[in-house]
């Protein structure tokens, strides 16, 4: 019989940066009805918020959640926040739960994740699927309709997937800290894709990752084209750097946005000389238009038409980001913080 991990060996870490609109709700979802979470250490690692996030957390720590602590994350990124768990302060902690402030969580999130790790002693981490949440913004609703489809997420099992099983990568949720320490945590030279890079090292070390589809979170998509562009450009850069660092070939689904960008570039070069230069732009625009109309009809909302500019932004930004990241050459990995194991 497996001995359950006690609450005092669990740490919940929440990286934040200007999350005043969501942080109180996230803490309530995580802590209000989960006895294991109520007995764990809860750390909000703030990267310099200026919108009142730290004041909200400080008030909740003083009045409602005595196990909640606010710490500074001067280097701002999620990777640096998570690597704080490598410090001696957490030497007696065996399980880490990563919580993103910009998401929705089931009320038993922490206890179910810890139970999954306890039930799978051969697993180094448990990852979970994310489901895009349609909100009041028409742009966000339309983006949520399409974000987790194959055209949006490329068929990633943790983006709207419904099957549990062993995977190479997924949305990070629960870690065995012994493994996290041995591997040196996240590579902090990555500003995106640091989770996939960690999973790559974990897989190369012979350890396994379990995707548990019954534990799901909702995430809020970006609410502007500019924000979406920045997000997917960084994703593309991160994927390219990951491939270069580990000598991996990108999957075919990951190359489709790159092929799209190359075809667009060739079309622009050809247009002054031949009408054939319109072939790819017209075919691509027609495909996305059909998808947008289908989304509008399926959801009975004109917001579904957002799929056209949203998908075009995601594909083009990701492809350009990948090419830019690949052009920078093989990254020099940051020196990891030394772990305890």
Description:
This protein is of the alpha/beta class. It folds into two domains: 9-222, Spore Coat Polysaccharide Biosynthesis Protein SpsA, Chain A (Alpha-Beta Complex); 239-327, no CATH class. Helices cover 46% and strands 14% of the residues. It contains 13 helices and eleven strands. Strands 3-2-1-4-9-6-10-8 form an eight-stranded mixed sheet, sandwiched between helices. The protein has a three-stranded mixed sheet with strand order 5-11-7. Helix 9 packs parallel to helix 10 (225-246) and helix 12 (279-299) packs across helix 13. The longest helix has 22 residues, at 225-246. The chain is globular, with a radius of gyration of 21 Å. The relative contact order is 0.13.
Brief synopsis:
With 341 residues, this protein is an alpha/beta fold.
Quaternary organisation? single chain
Largest sheet: 8 strands, mixed
CATH class of the largest domain: Alpha Beta
Fourth-level CATH superfamily of the largest domain: Spore Coat Polysaccharide Biosynthesis Protein SpsA, Chain A
How many helices? The count is 13
Distance between the termini: 26 Å
Average pLDDT over all residues: 92
Strand proportion, as a percent range, falls in 5-15%
Find the structural class using helix and strand composition: alpha/beta
Q: pLDDT below 50 for ≥5 consecutive residues: which ranges?
A: 334-341
Radius of gyration based on Cα positions: 21 Å
Protein name: Succinoglycan biosynthesis protein ExoA
Organism: Celeribacter indicus
Domain Glycosyltransferase 2-like: 12-140
Transmembrane segments: 278-297, 304-326
